[in-house]
Write a structure and sequence with these properties.
The protein is mainly beta. Among the domains are: 129 residues, Beta Barrel (Lipocalin), CATH 2.40.128; 120 residues, Beta Barrel (Lipocalin), CATH 2.40.128.630. It has a five-stranded antiparallel β-sheet with strand order 1-4-5-6-7, with no helix packed on it. Strands 2-28-29-30-31 form a five-stranded mixed β-sheet, with no helix packed on it. It has a four-stranded antiparallel β-sheet with strand order 3-34-33-32, with no helix packed on it. The longest helix has 24 residues. The chain is globular. The N and C termini lie far apart (91 Å).
Length: 443
């Protein structure tokens, strides 16, 4: 019998390597452990869908902040021919989107150290009026400029705009004349400006303007629409870059806001914090808007964090599941016909359009495309996707499979603002300030 000896050093080294490998996988698996679950929602409970009217897109992600619009004679079949370019305009650096009402659209950009607010004829591209004020461009790890889409107050015929420095302005829709101005960082709001500037879009509730200053006792605040005076404020969370959404829970109107490090729910009837739960990400950045449906809130973030679904109780938020497959750095997902559609991607992850079942987080399909980010909106039962590189894609809003109906290169450069559909016209802007208007009307 022949014995083959193995040196003790090699045995010791092999054992250490084996032990390290086991420890590595143990630590890795612990680090990747996420909550899994299924929301208990009866099938008969339909998800309410509010659509922006045909000739309206009143603010960030449309009239109802959900990216959904109704279309009339809209052509989304671009396989044979691309949509006609109606006009283009240079409006200055920024990532503010376009809002619209009837024959006018509104947006913002920074030109030579001034923020410029525009009212533009939707049919011709002619500037009806423009107003400007001093504001540094502040590149902030991207091109810089204003990040917030102007908000149209249809009832009072006003326009609300916000600079990254926290200056909120109310202007006349007709003339652009200044009605009033409020600073988020001054008294009485005392807000704390986020590292990359204010980017949370205000929202109208009844006769109040709900804003997100992020100060002590002013995570959110309500302003009088007539003069900008503070009606009430509450919450102590530092704000992120996400915009709040309004919903009804047990016959009470509430607002959900994804802050720098938490998700907060406020009761708009009692003007108080209802519940809050931690949602920490790298660099304390949360930027995508929440989605509320059937007693649940879905949130998603970038930087490897992913998504989480929470059930909303009277005094707490219960985590149902987490998902690493829905990663949205700042681009907001939308819900259409009971399914989530979103462009996943961030600095470290290439972009793809996904369809997800919100009940359990299951990805129904995944379609990769260029860039790391992008935005999606819906018109009736179709999606319009804008990639980070300015390509526009039309496809069906169905969980069955990805079904593309056309694509075209709408603009060059980098595009971070979501597309706008108002009337039969599609508006696309890039970060350097080129605004394009395309005709989507059939025939």
């Amino acid at each position: 019998m022949i014995r083959i000896g193995i040196p003790k050093k090699i045995v010791s080294y092999s054992f250490k390597c084996f032990s390290f490998t086991i420890l590595f996988f143990f630590v890795s698996s612990c680090g990747e452990k996420i909550r899994r679950g299924t929301a208990k929602i009866p099938e008969y409970q339909k998800v309410e869908e509010k659509l922006s009217n045909y000739n309206e897109w009143l603010g960030h992600l449309g009239t109802h902040r959900n990216g959904l619009a109704s279309g009339k004679e809209i052509n989304l079949d671009w396989l044979e021919s691309e949509p006609q370019l109606l006009w283009k305009k240079e409006i200055g650096v920024g990532v503010a989107g376009v809002s619209g009402l009837n024959e006018y659209v509104y947006s913002m950009g920074n030109v030579n150290g001034k923020d410029v607010i525009y009212c533009i004829d939707a049919f011709t591209g002619k500037i009806i009026w423009q107003k400007s004020y001093d504001c540094i461009i502040d590149k902030r790890m991207f091109e810089g400029g204003p990040p917030t889409t102007p908000l149209i107050d249809k009832k009072n015929k006003n326009l609300y705009t916000l600079s990254h420095q926290g200056e909120l302005r109310c202007l006349s829709l007709k003339s652009g004349s200044l009605q009033w101005k409020v600073s988020y960082t001054n008294s009485p709001l005392g807000g704390r400006r986020p590292d990359y500037g204010y980017a949370s879009s205000p929202i109208i509730y009844d006769d109040m303007l709900i804003i997100s200053p992020g100060g002590k006792e002013s995570s959110i605040a309500a302003l009088n629409l007539d003069d900008g005076s503070v009606l009430w404020s509450c919450g102590n969370s530092k704000v992120g870059y996400s915009s709040p959404v309004i919903f009804t829970l047990n016959e009470s109107d509430c607002i959900a806001q994804l802050n720098a490090s938490d998700l907060s729910v406020f009761n708009l009837g009692t003007n108080s914090l209802l519940s809050k739960t931690s949602w920490e990400t790298k660099y304390r950045i949360n930027a995508a808007a929440p989605i509320y449906f059937n007693g649940h809130i879905l949130i998603t973030s970038g930087y490897g964090k992913g998504a989480g679904l929470f059930k909303v109780h009277e005094e707490k938020l219960e985590l149902i599941y987490e998902s690493k497959q829905l990663v949205c750095q700042f681009q907001s997902p939308i819900m259409k016909n009971g399914f989530i559609y979103a462009v996943t991607g961030d600095n470290d992850r290439k972009a793809s359009l996904v369809c997800m079942n919100p009940i359990n987080g299951k990805i129904m399909w995944n379609e990769p495309f260029s860039g790391n980010r992008g935005n999606v909106i819906a018109i009736d039962d179709s999606l319009i996707v804008l990639t980070e590189r300015g390509e526009v894609i039309a496809c069906s809003a169905t969980p069955k499979s990805y079904n593309e109906t056309g694509r075209f290169q709408a603009v060059g450069g980098r595009c971070w603002a979501a597309p706008t559909i108002c009337g039969s016209r599609l508006y696309i802007r890039n970060n350097s300030g080129r605004l394009m208007c395309y005709n989507l009307k059939k025939n």
